[in-house]
Design goal:
The protein is 43% helix and 14% strand. By secondary structure, the chain is α/β, with parallel strands linked by helices.
Length: 334
């Protein structure tokens, strides 16, 4: 971190054997999966540091304002509680209730059950812009920014405050066990690092819209928290150039974009690219890395045989993992 590559080789971490971003309703089952995952990860020598992670629910910040959670299959969202600009002015003050409270309870459970022996990651939370889209709708929020910029600013400010308060509540609860990122493989950060923020709506907006209606609030969050790592799913090429110029943003994590795609969109060399790359695409990633002199941290996927339980793996499964390990160690040497 801090815009410096390791002296020996590039860092890489294999993605989790279990789905890390699930809704995780059961404390005991979630903890058991996390511990089993640590055991499975011992099969390969990467840069993973054993740790626990609670999961992700899109309803987290909305629940702090009293929005009821909606679960349909594996999708989690919330009821719309905003229907007009005036509703924004009537929003209650956020509290540590609902889903947010449950995350804190799960983190406390993890802390107690492991006797403080393992670090615990902050839960995955959507940033203020996507929470606004959940509380109302993205179309309405985008129109609000143009038609009532003052009320839009009031909404985003309140959601930013809620995000930071919940982040700090987790940090206070976990103390020295707190890990301030939910972005894998970037699974360890300096203690003085600020925050990781998910902004999936970046894929929906233009660069100028970002600069006018997103950037000021992201910079404010960075001023209050320190450096920021920004995550987005989808293709957010249009916003990569202004993101690289945003004060306090030092890392970008793409859920679907390749390193080549990020570089072609204008990723700066000094911006850390936190990539998630299938093993089969590593050659292309390394080609781009060497051509562009990119600053990267690699999540490596398609490593584990998930078609059968770990206890049923054969020597062929472990041999494949060893071959992957040797390849990565050789190719990532600086």
């Amino acid at each position: 971190m801090h815009n410096k590559q390791p002296k020996d080789r590039i860092l890489f971490v294999c993605t989790s054997y279990y789905e890390p971003y699930c809704a995780a309703p059961d404390f005991e089952e979630r903890l058991r999966n996390c511990l089993d995952d640590i055991i499975i990860r011992a099969s390969i020598e990467d840069d993973y540091i054993p740790s626990l992670f609670t999961g992700c629910r899109q309803s987290t910040i909305p629940s702090m304002f009293g929005a009821p959670e909606i679960i349909i299959g594996e999708d989690v969202t919330c009821e719309k509680i905003l229907h007009c600009p005036e509703d924004i002015l009537r929003l209650p003050k956020h509290q540590m209730i609902g889903v947010a409270k449950r995350w804190l309870e799960m983190e406390e459970y993890f802390l107690e059950e492991t006797k403080g022996k393992l670090p615990i990651h902050v839960t995955d939370m959507q940033g203020p812009f996507d929470v606004a889209g959940q509380l109302w709708s993205y179309d309405e929020v985008f129109l609000l920014a143009y038609e009532h910029p003052d009320i839009y600013g009031e909404l985003i400010q309140r959601l930013t405050d809620a995000f930071l308060d919940f982040w700090n509540a987790q940090k206070s609860l976990l103390g020295s066990n707190f890990v301030g990122t939910h972005l894998f493989a970037w699974n360890w950060v300096p203690e003085d690092f600020g925050a990781s923020m998910s902004i999936d709506s970046l894929a929906m907006i233009s660069g100028p819209f970002y600069q006018e209606f997103y950037q000021p609030y992201i910079e404010q969050a960075a001023d209050r928290m320190g450096e920021l790592a920004i995550h987005s799913c989808g293709d957010f090429s249009a916003t990569i150039p202004p993101l690289c110029e945003t004060r306090g943003v030092t890392a970008l994590n793409a859920g679907q974009m390749s390193l080549r795609g990020m570089c072609d969109a204008g990723l700066k060399e000094d911006m850390l690219a936190i990539t998630c790359t299938p093993f089969e695409e590593m050659e292309d990633l390394l080609t781009v890395y060497r051509e562009k002199n990119s600053h990267i941290s690699i999540s490596l996927s398609n490593v584990w045989n998930t078609t059968k339980p770990f206890a049923q793996w054969t020597s062929e499964d472990f041999d494949r993992i060893k071959r992957i390990e040797i390849y990565m160690q050789e190719q990532l040497s600086c």
